[in-house]
Prior knowledge:
Layout: H1 3-21, E1 26-34, E2 42-44, E3 47-48, E4 56-58, H2 61-66, E5 70-72, E6 78-81, E7 94-96, E8 98-101, E9 109-117, E10 124-131, H3 140-150, E11 156-161, E12 170-174, E13 190-191, E14 202-205, H4 213-218, E15 222-229, E16 232-239, H5 245-249, E17 256-257, E18 266-269, H6 275-278, E19 283-290, H7 292-295, H8 298-305, H9 314-319, E20 330-340, E21 351-354, E22 374-377, H10 386-410
Parallel strand pairs: 4-7
Antiparallel strand pairs: 1-17, 1-20, 2-8, 3-4, 5-6, 6-20, 8-19, 9-15, 9-20, 10-11, 10-19, 11-12, 12-14, 13-14, 15-16, 16-18, 21-22
One 2-acetamido-2-deoxy-beta-D-glucopyranose binds at residues 47, 50, 138-139.
Amino acid sequence: MLLAPMLPFSLSLLVVWLPVLWPVFGYELVRDYSGLSFFNGWDFYGAYDNLTLGDVMWLNVDDAFGQGLAYVNRAGNAVLKVDNMHNVAFNQKRNSLRITTQAAYAVGSLWITDMVHIPFGCSVWPAFWTKGPKWPDNGEIEYVLQFCLQAYLLNRDSIMEAINLMDYNQMALHTLPGCMHTTPPNQMGVSKELDCSMPSGCVVAETAPNSYQAGFAAAGGGVFAAQFDVSGIFIWFWSRPNIPLSILQATSASPIDISEWGPPSASFPSTTCNITQFFSPQNLVFDITLCGIWAGLPVEYLPACGNSGPTGICYNDNVVGPGDRYNDAYFEIKYVRAYTTGGIAPTPTAAAVAIATPLKTTTTTSMKRPAGTALVSSPLFYPGSARMNTEMGGVIVLLCLLVGTVTSSIL
Length: 411
Ligand SMILES: *[C@@H]1O[C@H](CO)[C@@H](O)[C@H](O)[C@H]1NC(C)=O
Ligand SMILES: *[C@@H]1O[C@H](CO)[C@@H](O)[C@H](O)[C@H]1NC(C)=O
């Protein structure tokens, strides 16, 4: 009885408020890596894998293109692959790639990548991830020492990482002690390790289907997105059929509105991990290694792939010999886009979506609005607008509560 008179009032408020508030969900594009210019702005590693101890040589830029491991295909997609054309003799390494953006992206950034194919197969360990400038190029142990000396943290965020015959993606943060993962109520993935200083990092396993392996490719690939915000680090994955309209409609130049993305696969709220303390500006990295200190560990390798060759040893049964085991060991990437809350043309409304705050429990998800999106300001790009951000944040929280009220009234 009471609902009838209330609804028109609430709905009319929404009509008035939405156009005003919409831009605060928006991110401005700062860099598009795609098509023939995809490879501009990346450094090629050009050395053995002395970081994850895989049995690969990560080629330099000339060899990468010369040997056909990096190229743009007819579809206009960038391909990064493991050598599948040459015989590798015992005690030799196989050629592969590791590329890192020259640009580093600060807290307040959003990264989106659309991929058609991700490397998979026994011994294969691909990753799309981000890292602070000092890690892991100096080695993990050195890095820890450096951290202690420098008293600030430079860390990494793994958006896509899997090994061997896993059929799902894992997401993780790697930090020194003091950053913990707490599982927020509307995280879609399953939390595993909670302490981000453990060797695995704090890990969340994807539960949506087709996030990795043959299933990912068969579905036409999908999109990964990561929001790197003062309020936390939030990672989404959508298989091709489920990509949100905002992403389908985004161009290589347009801003993007993330307000309808719904709950992320992995949600690392800043309540238990101070993002600005533990993370410096991040470079984006694609790499493919073989075996090494995850895929090649007997405890990981044997159950999945131990029977795939005569010796049960990752290197012997895969890396050595002809390359046809690696026909699926390639990334095919439509684009990588980096966005910022500030953007090239600064906007004063630099608020970002924080998926995990106590407010979420009051704005529970509904069929109509899968949000749970309470908002926190993200002032890092334009510190001068911090006051405005705070005010806008307050208004948005109010809006979310209103929406929650309206939807729960209707339902
Ligand atoms: C890895 O190799 C590169 C190139 O030789 C070198 O600059 C870097 O210091 C090495 N890192 C480690 C951890 O050994
Ligand atoms: C988070 O870390 C930053 C940088 O170290 C610091 O300025 C800030 O006060 C910290 N925030 C909290 C809530 O501890």
